[in-house]
Amino acid sequence: MQRQWLKMARRVGISILVIALAVQAYLLRGSQFTNVTTFAPTVQTTKVPTLLIPGWGGNTWTYQRFIDYAARHHYAQHTMTIWVAPSGKVTVKGHVQGVKNPLIQLLYTWNYTPTYQGQVKQLTRVLLLLARDYQVHDLNVVAHSYGGTEWLHAYIANPQLQRQLNFHRVILLGVPTDESFGAKTKYTQTLFKRSVDPEFLKLTHQIQTAHLGSDDHLYNWMGQTQPGTDGEVPIVQSEMLRSLIKNKHVHYHQRIFPATNHLQLHQKPTILRQICQVLWGKGNG
């Protein structure tokens, strides 16, 4: 009887594993490529790609609506998907050379780790590969949640990236920069002196020698569903970006979207339209 029970438990376990792997494969399939042949009259075309970086647990769904919106409204086209594994293996599908307003979708094959340090290394590998193998030396970024934290750490800590890649417009959506503080803490210019986040403190040292271009634009966008938070990330944790870059000659833009939770930052049509306007709207060049 016990042997039969063990066999049944083993079969159930195998079935659950197969289902889990199938679901993960589906979530990481990548969005379909899009093709935009005629751009809207208000759209500025450029060969500079835009890299879409998901946050913790992010997958194909994260930017699916944005990719569809950008194509449907003749702003941009999704022409490359990159998968990166914890081992560092990078798989690339598609191209960006010669494409107007190309979108690159980044997918981590395992993005459920307790910290983001592994993803920082994986993202660094992807960025260096884009520069070396695809001659991408100018890049825009849209990053959600920890995806933006990973970009900050990857770029600020790596002089090689700073030499090889110029980031023209970086849009950070609900990105925690310093996780020392909670929703009840109000941001002040001297709050950084109370930081106990070792990763933020590391950034404050690295930023002193990091190169950020004077023409670069950082957009720090946050949601708010109740005082001080978007439901997941306290607003003050994102506002600490202002303290981090205070001595850098970079264009800094900050905005809080009311009645917007953490996920809605990459789902609300009004926000998607404004992302498109920042990246490709005429007059923003």
Structure, described:
This protein is an alpha/beta fold and 285 residues long. The chain folds into 2 domains: 1-30; 32-280, Alpha/Beta hydrolase fold, catalytic domain (Rossmann fold, 3-Layer(aba) Sandwich). It is 36% helix and 19% strand. It has 8 helices and 8 strands; from the N terminus they run αβαβββαβααβαβαβα. The chain has an 8-stranded mixed beta sheet, sandwiched between helices. Strand 6 (166-173), helix 6 (198-206) and strand 7 form a beta-alpha-beta unit. Helix 2 (60-72) packs across helix 8 (269-280). The N and C termini lie far apart (73 Å). The mean pLDDT is 93.
| Helix coverage percent | 25-40%
- Largest sheet features: 8 strands, mixed
* Domains, number: 2
Strand order of the largest sheet: 3-2-4-1-5-6-7-8
- Low-confidence segments, ≥5 residues, pLDDT <50? none
Tell me the distance between the termini: 73 Å
The sequence of SSEs as H and E is HEHEEEHEHHEHEHEH
Number of strands: 8
CATH superfamily of the largest domain: Alpha/Beta hydrolase fold, catalytic domain
Going by CATH, the architecture of the largest domain would be: 3-Layer(aba) Sandwich
Provide a compact summary of the structure.
The protein has 285 residues and is α/β, with parallel strands linked by helices. The protein has helices at 2-27, 60-72, 117-133, 146-156, 159-164, 198-206, 235-244, 269-280; strands at 50-53, 77-84, 90-94, 102-108, 138-144, 166-173, 217-224, 251-258.
